[in-house]
Amino acid sequence: MSDFRSYAFKLTRRYADADDVLQDALLNVWKAYGALRGDPTNYIRSAVHNAYVDLVKHRKRRPAVSLEHEPWYYDNERVRAEVREHICSELARATKMLAPRRRAIFEDYANQMDYQGIAVKQGVSVGTVKSAVHHAKATLQELLCDRL
Question: DSSP code of 38?
Fold first, then answer.
């Protein structure tokens, strides 16, 4: 079963989505189990791929909503301060969960250093910096997805 979960994760790059894809795929295989002949491994792998395609086709991206245009937000400095504080604390918490080297590179990036400057400061190549920033963003998105 872990092979199928790994395959689903390779497709989705998010553990929660991988679990959803695998669950949908196994449900579809279970429904068609009577019609399957032989080893179901290939059927399951195809079902995982098809469930992933369905996820991509039907995923509705949540549009970014700016709270600044909401009357209750705009008119209330205390609410704005609480929202900012919550976002900052969640981001700080999530950033602490990054690997130390990736966190250091990402913090330099967040402080608006350019890739070359970060590479020199950290003693790594520019490609390593770009990779670390990309993976840090993906990790933070995964960690913060349901928290904000």
Answer: S
Question: Domain limits at 132?
Answer: 67-144
pTM more than 0.70: no
Residue 52 shares a structural domain with residue 71: no
Q: Which two tokens stand for residue 52?
A: 């992933």
Residue 47: name the closest of 27, 66, 67, 62 by CA: 27
Average confidence score pLDDT of the chain: 82
Structurally, the chain folds into a number of domains equal to 2
Same domain, 91 and 122: yes
- Are 50 and 78 part of one and the same domain? no
Contact call for residues 116 and 104 (beta carbons, < 8 A): no
What is the CB-side half-sphere exposure of residue 17 using CA atoms within 13 A? 19
Torsion (CA) 58, 61, 63, 64 in degrees, nearest 10: 180
Longest dimension (CA), the chain: 66
Q: How confident is the model at residue 125 (pLDDT cuts 50, 70, 90)?
A: very high
Cα-based angle 76, 144, 13 (whole degrees, multiple of 5): 150
CA atoms of 86 and 84, how far apart (whole Å)? 5
Tell me the percentage of the chain whose pLDDT exceeds 90: 25
